[in-house]
């Protein structure tokens, strides 16, 4: 990554880093420190001079946001602190390059542990802990933040885990930072295929209730062990269409066969499973109005 023009420092609450400081922290954005890449750009592991380990997210250039808007959004995100949300440590604006610096969460993602090749089967206690933690984090964004924050891209890859399998929701506020303000129509499809609520297709709007739908898909992943869309198997339906009749049967008859991840070999608490199945079923309702709020789901 070539160094852009010299960094400018903005004076406000969150820490401002220069490009050189972050280059030094990540060993020149070395390939060995690359944690991942996605629609928003690259993420590198870094170590600050004080020893704090961080994740540096380099946003793809070309976002329509001006510096002032970027500052304002970063300011909002940096004020959000909750044990189930990944904290923003600081940022860097250097020429056209913007970077966000987050606390480092050591144990990869829910997607990695649930779907990664050769991973041990995730036990029921861990699945339940992840569901509850991420529900608490999301409920905080929706109902306790001012202004409220709609995540817009809830998925297994955005749920980071610590060494105790406590979940931390990542990338909230990022959708806003990458919106193109120069056009009336968003040029980038928000969200991730397989997690998107049906109303997004018709209205192009994402609301708190679309986040609830995406969370419901995530619960289905934890229950079934299946991906929302699996390119390896020919699935006539998406996970949600496949699961709906099985959820209904499970709720009516208390029969979880065929729905629950067979890899768990029946090792789960039936009362807890019943609650998670009921939550998933309510969260993926076609009508956004009929879906629960995250604060109701949180009581999982």
TrEMBL record:
Its EC number is 2.7.11.1. GO terms for molecular function: ATP binding; protein serine/threonine kinase activity. Keywords: ATP-binding, Cell membrane, Glycoprotein, Kinase, Membrane, Nucleotide-binding, Phosphoprotein, Serine/threonine-protein kinase, Transferase, Transmembrane, Transmembrane helix. GO terms for cellular component: plasma membrane. The keyword Glycosyltransferase does not apply. It catalyses: L-seryl-[protein] + ATP = O-phospho-L-seryl-[protein] + ADP + H(+); L-threonyl-[protein] + ATP = O-phospho-L-threonyl-[protein] + ADP + H(+). It is an enzyme of class 2 (transferase). CDD domains: STKc_IRAK. Pfam families: PK_Tyr_Ser-Thr. SMART domains: S_TKc. Residues 29-300 form the Protein kinase domain. It is found in: Cell membrane. It is a single-pass membrane protein. ATP binds at residue 57. Belongs to the protein kinase superfamily. This is non-specific serine/threonine protein kinase. It comes from Punica granatum (Pomegranate). The lineage of its organism: Eukaryota, Viridiplantae, Streptophyta, Embryophyta, Tracheophyta.
